[in-house]
């Protein structure tokens, strides 16, 4: 019995060594690269070593497998030597005269296997998953020493494994490019954990959507633009200033498609207060304006504003016709979403739990958010709710025309000069069999 004590101690040491390798395997694989980079930038040398080791996974896993397999083989040998004599003696005392060698070997094997599975595999791996960065930084220096110690074997195994991987057409290095989906998933997890406020999550999502939302989704449409002509009378100018609360007005030559520049309302107000004549032929009064195509995304518009040091632009289509104007405030309102107060200019008004009154010029992205719809059909073919109705009905809509889509009924409530002003959206309590179904207008 006493003679088995060194084997028991040896088995205990092998279990600890195997636990070290198991925790190293999981922690270096599960550790967050972003957190490690942050720790490394703060001066933690161990985090930098973990990042460097992740860049050469072949060396790490080669040394790891040498350690795991060696401890497993030695564990079987030492486990048999540690427990077999005891169980052979115990069984012989209970039932003397029998050969208990094989049975004692099986019992020793089961005990050693149980010890390795629980204390050398399951427990260290669960601890490593719970705190991967901390465990990885704890084991990185010993693993670096082991890789150096077994350098020749590690080199051969790494080259053989790389050759096999290349033969399968798989890259030998891990690609860890962070995508916007990864960031949004992390933000969503942070919101679920209570670390990030829902309003902050909405703002971040809106920022990422700027890469896909086109400028027409945030612009002031052509029909809403108030402008002056070069021969505008002073009485008309004063009337427009008093009735329209805009900060800037376009100045055009005869019509909206011949823009000369823009004038700031505060300059016009100064002329009125000082009783000076207003003339748009004054170069100090009329400023040059930025022109941008309607194919730009909001992100590109923001970059244009930053590059040109402007905050106001006229939007042209492919035929050089003015389709709208946009300001830096329009872009920021898109980013802030529901955090900004728009009072009477709200485009989506929820009347109750199941009905919404929506302006026809509402961007489809805003509608998808409000109704929690993943996407409208072929939403790249239109920008607004009015465009959605025209696309679904395949005609110029009239009052009471309806469309049923995704458990919602869209009904045209008001049309002005072939332009959809308002749409009533009703949630259908009973899901229709056909998710997309245009409804003919009432007689």
Automatic annotation (TrEMBL):
<dbReference type="Pfam" id="PF00571">
    <property type="entry name" value="CBS"/>
</dbReference>
<feature type="domain" description="CBS">
    <location>
        <begin position="285"/>
        <end position="344"/>
    </location>
</feature>
<dbReference type="InterPro" id="IPR002550">
    <property type="entry name" value="CNNM"/>
</dbReference>
<feature type="domain" description="CNNM transmembrane">
    <location>
        <begin position="1"/>
        <end position="200"/>
    </location>
</feature>
<comment type="function">
    <text>Involved in cadaverine and putrescine tolerance in stationary phase. May facilitate the efflux of both cadaverine and putrescine from the cytoplasm, reducing potentially toxic levels under certain stress conditions.</text>
</comment>
<keyword id="KW-0677">Repeat</keyword>
<comment type="similarity">
    <text>Belongs to the UPF0053 family. PaeA subfamily.</text>
</comment>
<protein>
    <recommendedName>
        <fullName>Polyamine export protein</fullName>
    </recommendedName>
</protein>
<keyword id="KW-1133">Transmembrane helix</keyword>
<dbReference type="GO" id="GO:0050660">
    <property type="term" value="F:flavin adenine dinucleotide binding"/>
</dbReference>
<dbReference type="GO" id="GO:0005886">
    <property type="term" value="C:plasma membrane"/>
</dbReference>
<dbReference type="Pfam" id="PF01595">
    <property type="entry name" value="CNNM"/>
</dbReference>
<dbReference type="InterPro" id="IPR046342">
    <property type="entry name" value="CBS_dom_sf"/>
</dbReference>
<keyword id="KW-0472">Membrane</keyword>
<dbReference type="InterPro" id="IPR000644">
    <property type="entry name" value="CBS_dom"/>
</dbReference>
<dbReference type="InterPro" id="IPR036318">
    <property type="entry name" value="FAD-bd_PCMH-like_sf"/>
</dbReference>
<dbReference type="InterPro" id="IPR016169">
    <property type="entry name" value="FAD-bd_PCMH_sub2"/>
</dbReference>
<dbReference type="InterPro" id="IPR044751">
    <property type="entry name" value="Ion_transp-like_CBS"/>
</dbReference>
<keyword id="KW-0997">Cell inner membrane</keyword>
<keyword id="KW-0812">Transmembrane</keyword>
<keyword id="KW-1003">Cell membrane</keyword>
<keyword id="KW-0813">Transport</keyword>
<feature type="transmembrane region" description="Helical">
    <location>
        <begin position="103"/>
        <end position="123"/>
    </location>
</feature>
<keyword id="KW-0129">CBS domain</keyword>
<dbReference type="Pfam" id="PF03471">
    <property type="entry name" value="CorC_HlyC"/>
</dbReference>
<dbReference type="InterPro" id="IPR005170">
    <property type="entry name" value="Transptr-assoc_dom"/>
</dbReference>
